[in-house]
Here is the input.
Amino acid sequence: MRMVILMLSIAAVVPKVCIPDEIFRCGNWLVSADMSVAELLNKCGKPSAQEVSTEDVRNVNGAKVGTSTTQVWRYDRGSRAAPMIVTIVDGQIRSMERGK
Here is the structure.
């Protein structure tokens, strides 16, 4: 169990280097995962759907050291484009990808 917590902690801290996020169009703007949540809201507006989850963050000994909030925003972009799915962890955009 400790090894699983350690591996998940490392995975959350290590930046993604292999998988580039997609760039999407919101009206006249291009948006990507390297922008802030405020910039995304300014360019794309409020998402059409939003899910929020909170989970405990634990240290190697299993003691709770805080919480982490993950939001998944969905932007429906019309019938000709796949929706844009934005994952936000603790107030920072972690990924943008095409939904189904």
Observations:
- Strands lie at 24-26, 29-31, 49-58, 64-75, 84-89, 92-98.
- The chain has two helices and six strands.
- Residues 2-13 form the longest helix (12 residues).
- The mean pLDDT is 84.
